[in-house]
Amino acid sequence: MGGDHGPPVVIPAVVRAISLLPSFAFLITLQTNSVLGALGATVQQVHGEVGETLRTLNLLGNGFIITAILWGAATAEMIDRRFRASALYLVIGAVFCLFGVIHSPGAQGTFSVPWKLTSPIPWHFAAAYLLSALLIAAWKFLPAERDEIPDAVLDESSA
Length: 159
Known about the structure:
Elements lengths: L9 H29 L9 H14 L2 H16 L3 H16 L22 H19 L11 H8 L1
């Protein structure tokens, strides 16, 4: 991981940071649900912007281990300019969204089947993953920036 695309310490840190986001969402959801449970309330009873934020964190946290693996792998592959592999991880994520393996809209993070979904949210997540995969796959066709140092600069620094 890392190749020649950045300092060897920074790239693993970037991948770890992105991989931790679903875990943080789950942790926040776990703590929030504990507080709400102690008050005799549920996330569905919280309205407004706070309620939407809590429901979004719940979606991001459901299936957080698999989500973290997919996001970390896709990011590492993208950094190493293996765009097809990165896009493949995101396509897998899209399929997992439809079956509730990740980002399940159920309160308990339950699995589902796409043809019996009562919420459009899994389709929205799947579409987002597929769009991301398409963009990353298309990125392969963009010219790569080279980290080459012009000879004139090398000559000046040697002197």
